[in-house]
User: Fold this.
Amino acid sequence: MSYFKNPFIYGGRVSGDAFCNRESEIQELLGDIRSRQHVILSSQRRFGKTSLVWKVLEEAQKDNIIPVYVDLYPISTLGEFIEEYAKAIARTLTAFDKAKRLMRGLFSRVHLSMGVDPAGNPQWSVGFDRTRETETFDEVASSLENYLNRRSNYGVVVFDEFQQITETDGEKTERRLRSAIQTHEHVSYLFVGSKKHLLHDLFSNPNRPFYRSGKIFPLEKIDPGHLKRFIEKRFNEAGVDIDGKTSGLIVETTECHPYYTQYLCHILYDIMEERRIRTDDVPRAIDFLLRRESTAYMNTWDLLTHRQRQALVALSETGPGENPFRPEILRRFNISQPSVMIRALKSLVDKDLVDRANGRYEIIDLFFKRWIKTAISMNSHG
Ligand SMILES: Nc1ncnc2c1ncn2[C@@H]1O[C@H](COP(=O)(O)OP(=O)(O)OP(=O)(O)O)[C@@H](O)[C@H]1O
Ligand SMILES: [Mg+2]
Assistant:
């Protein structure tokens, strides 16, 4: 029985002691915000973008910069975008201004009302004329700038899961938001997104409204030294002994991926027999994790085409820095042209199973890769 709570958290935003370092990223982003440089922060899924931006917003607030966080994940229409954005602004400004005055002064086209949720927290709801969405959007998009301009104050807006904007109204919303933002002098914008290729297209395609409108900031994995110390500290604080060799093996196994590191450590904590972790425990934890995920992996696998499966098997076997286009690989899978393999790889990128960085394809989930290697490759090549 353990008296401590498992100190490793995987999934969702982490903060406080559960957040490892990222000091240089925090400082760089703060510098950008202070100089009102718009930034596009992107990475694979679960690299810690949301956790990082919340940390940055906390720091920005200490600098008297007003932080607004908008989660676009749930939106798929312009109306929903307006709602989320107006609510996010109202939620933040309530901390700085009188609610009543806010409700009167902030918007003319949006009616704000404040209630409380079952837990007793204030909750805003918004109403507006649904036949006047575009005008309402323009008003909301400029409201924070106008508010801050009147008070000679500065702010930062984070649009998390910004690629969702493409779900709304073709490029119309992009264009409207872009033209509003262009004139803003009191707000910096941080566009955050997980579907790297989609977000990339928004900002690097000359035909898109957001072309070159900010600095591209690709978020990398966490530094191995920092991550090792983080693991040791978290275990130690929960009364668990771990040596440097073992923490080294953990970050080597997870390739410093923040989410998978926390996941593997969480399992290690759960399966440890005494309050001690040793190198032998790592392969046991990996087996445990693979067994736990196998149904999900199998479901993913079942939905793939024959070619996509072949591409994954080939990828799971290629070494770092290599692509699975070599003639002997293609021959093995009976593929006549590299283009067939490339097409399959691209479709896997669209499904967020594979990432393409610096011309190299790789399987995103490194435990899925392990699963393919053990459960699939050894049995068949189908
Ligand atoms: N700085 C960090 N220190 C420790 N763990 C982290 C850190 N950042 C992320 N993680 C781990 O990764 C998980 C996902 O973090 P977060 O939700 O911030 O990532 P994300 O990139 O926003 O993910 P998504 O692509 O799903 O939006 C966390 O639950 C945690 O386990
Ligand atoms: Mg996120």
Summary: The longest helix spans residues 281-302.
